[in-house]
Specification:
Strand content: under 5%
Number of helices: 6
Number of strands: 0
Helix content: over 70%
Order of helices and strands: HHHHHH
Radius of gyration: 12 Å
Largest sheet: none
Distance between the termini: 19 Å
Length: 97
């Protein structure tokens, strides 16, 4: 992971929800397809409680498909949250990469 991606991934752990959401949107838009990015997105997803940030994280995971994110997506699916459909779509994108 280069320094720029690392800096953006660090923002996923920021205290401000808007900063975290913006970081997820940036990663979604640039679609780096880096396993370290998938891990950072997945870890942020599991610890995040804000619905808008969670949606942005799931969208970024869907567009950055990597096996690294499977365990995080399965956790969302097994929890039966409202994001279950988005997690299923992200999981399906891993098989299509």
């Amino acid at each position: 992971m280069n320094a720029t991606l690392k800096a953006v991934c660090t923002l996923l752990r920021n205290d401000n929800v808007e900063v975290r959401r913006s970081a997820a949107i940036v990663l979604d838009r640039i679609r780096p397809r880096d396993p370290s990015v998938s891990k950072a997105l997945g870890e942020a997803l599991i610890t995040c409680t804000d619905p808008q940030v969670r949606t942005s994280l799931l969208e970024a995971l869907q567009h950055n498909p990597h096996e690294q994110s499977i365990k995080y997506l399965l956790e969302v699916i097994s929890a039966g949250t409202v994001e279950e459909d988005a997690a299923l779509q992200a999981l399906a994108s891993i098989g299509q990469k």
